[in-house]
Amino acid sequence: MSPDLKYLLFSTILCFVQVLVAASGANSQVGLNTLAGNREGLPDMTGWAGRAKRAHLNMIENLVLFAALVLIAAAAGKANATTAMGAMIFFWARLAYAIIYLIGIPWLRTIAWFIAVIGMAMIAWTLLQAL
User: Fold this and answer.
1) Domain count for the chain
2) Which tens digit of pLDDT belongs to each residue from 58-81?
3) For position 91, which CATH number holds?
């Protein structure tokens, strides 16, 4: 498995862990009976549970773009050291983002997000150069 695809796998697992953390937070605030229901009128999650939910939703938004870039690079045979580095940067920055967001450090969270974007930009730039 190429490094790009390895980090796509790791990122997908991270996204799954984030949904488990968010569900745990929601359970702690509203209880399992409420979560098992139709969720109509579900209150907004607050504190760490709200941050966990928002971090997970942000990961989903970014994972779609990251996955597309990695899969295009793999399918086109354009994966190389730069795309591997971009994928590695994306994963580790997203892991840091998840932890930082859960803890609640606003500006540091934004920096981690931006670093992950740089990782995606490295992959995109490599693909654009191959056109």
Assistant:
1) 1
2) 999 999 999 999 999 999 999 999
3) 1.20.120.550
